[in-house]
Amino acid sequence: MVDLIKGKTALVTGGSSRLGKVICNYLAREGVNVVIHYNSSREEALRVKEEITSLGVKSWVIKADLSKPNEVDELINESFKQAGEVNFLINNASVFPRVGLSDLSINGLNWIMQVNAWAPLMLTLRFANMVNEGKVINVLDSVVDGYNFERYAYYLSKVMLNAVTRSLALRLAPRIMVNAVAPGIILPAKDEDTGRVEAMINQVPLRRRGSPDDIAHAVLFLLENSYVTGQVIYVDGGEHLKPRVVY
Ligand SMILES: NC(=O)c1ccc[n+]([C@@H]2O[C@H](COP(=O)([O-])OP(=O)(O)OC[C@H]3O[C@@H](n4cnc5c(N)ncnc54)[C@H](OP(=O)(O)O)[C@@H]3O)[C@@H](O)[C@H]2O)c1
C-alpha cells in the first residue's frame, strides 16, 4: 500500500546543500512541508527554503551543531514548536574527515560518532517520544558492507548507524518505521582526488556514479511504503555486491 505523504512534515538534517538539498526539493514537490536543519550553511538553507516554499509547501530553517548534545535536543524541540508536528525524520547530516586507523584518537572518534551516529540515534528516540507514529530514514554509506581504513572513524560511525537502523526498527515497531538509504559514489568529497574517484567508479558494477536524485527517489520510496522497516536500500550501482576496501 502506498502511504499518502502530501501535507506531512519532514525534518531533514543537513538539508542546505548537496544530497540534503535535493531530498528537501523532492519532498516539497510531493507536497511535504520541510524543516531544513543546518549548522554552518545558513545562507544556503534560506535559499533552499525560498525554493521549496515557491512549490507551495511550508518550510522552516533551524540551526544546530549536532556535535553538541544540548543542540540535538533543541533541534527536535524547536522543530515541533515551529512546525506544529513532524511526521518524518531524515538523518542526512554527516562529517567525512580523513581520520584513518593510524591517526585515530578517542577525541576525534568521539566528535565524528557524535555527529554521524549519536545525534541520529538521539533524534530518533526524541522523535519517537513525541509522535504516535512516524518514519525515520538514516542516510548511511554503502561502505558499511566493506572497509575504509583511510576514513576509519567515518566508517565506524556509519556501521553504528546501520546497527541503530536495524535495532530501532525492531524496538520502535509498530509505531515507528526505521529504514536507511546507503549511497555509493554520488558526489565527490571536497578533499577527494578526481583521478582516484574515476578509478573507484571503474570498480562499480554499473560503471558510473549515481546522482542525488537516485538517493532522493529511494527516500521517497521508503516514506511512501507502509510495510518496510529495518531495511537498507543500497543506491550504489551494485557496489555492495563486491564490497570496497579502502586503505
Ligand atoms: N556524497 C556522496 O557521494 C555520499 C556517498 C555515501 C554516503 N553519503 C552520505 O550521504 C549524506 C549526505 O552526503 P553529502 O555529501 O551531501 O554530505 P555533506 O555535504 O558532506 O554534509 C551534509 C551536511 O552535514 C552537515 N553537518 C556537518 N557537520 C555538522 C554538525 N557538526 N552539525 C550539524 N550538521 C553538520 C552540514 O551542514 P552545514 O553545511 O550547514 O554545516 C552539511 O550540509 C551523508 O550522510 C553522507 O555520509 C554521501
What descriptors fit this protein?
247 residues, alpha/beta, Rossmann fold, two-stranded parallel ribbon, 17% strand, globular, binds NADP nicotinamide-adenine-dinucleotide phosphate
Task: Please describe what this structure looks like.
There is one protein chain. This protein is 43% helix and 17% strand. The chain has 247 residues and is α/β, with parallel strands linked by helices. The protein has one domain (9-246): Rossmann fold (3-Layer(aba) Sandwich), CATH 3.40.50. Strands 3-2-1-4-5-7-8 form a seven-stranded parallel β-sheet, with helices on both faces. A two-stranded parallel ribbon has the order 6-9. The protein binds NADP nicotinamide-adenine-dinucleotide phosphate (NAP). Residues 14, 16-20, 38-41, 65-67, 92-96, 115, 139, 141, 183, 185-187 line the site of NADP nicotinamide-adenine-dinucleotide phosphate.
Q: What's the layout of helices and strands?
A:
Elements: E1 9-12, H1 18-29, E2 33-38, H2 42-53, E3 59-63, H3 69-83, E4 88-91, H4 106-130, E5 134-139, E6 147-148, H5 152-172, E7 176-183, H6 194-202, H7 212-224, E8 232-235, E9 245-246
Parallel strand pairs: 1-2, 1-4, 2-3, 4-5, 5-7, 6-9, 7-8
Helix pairs in contact: 1-2, 1-7, 3-4, 4-5
The structure holds NADP nicotinamide-adenine-dinucleotide phosphate.
With strands numbered from the N-terminus, the spatial order across the biggest sheet is 3-2-1-4-5-7-8
Uncertain ranges: none
How would you sum up the global shape?
Answer: globular
Task: Give the name of the CATH superfamily.
Answer: NAD(P)-binding Rossmann-like Domain
What is the helical fraction, as a range of percent? 40-55%
CATH architecture label: 3-Layer(aba) Sandwich
Largest sheet: 7 strands, parallel
CATH topology: Rossmann fold
Classified by CATH, the class is Alpha Beta
- Judged by helices, strands and strand pairing, the structural class is alpha/beta
Total number of β-strand segments?
Answer: 9
> What gap, in angstroms, lies between the N and C termini?
44 Å
SS field, number of helical segments: 7
Element string (H = helix, E = strand): EHEHEHEHEEHEHHEE
Rg is 17 Å
> What's the mean pLDDT score?
96
Bound molecules: NADP nicotinamide-adenine-dinucleotide phosphate
User: β content, as a range?
Assistant: 15-25%
- Any idea how many domains? 1
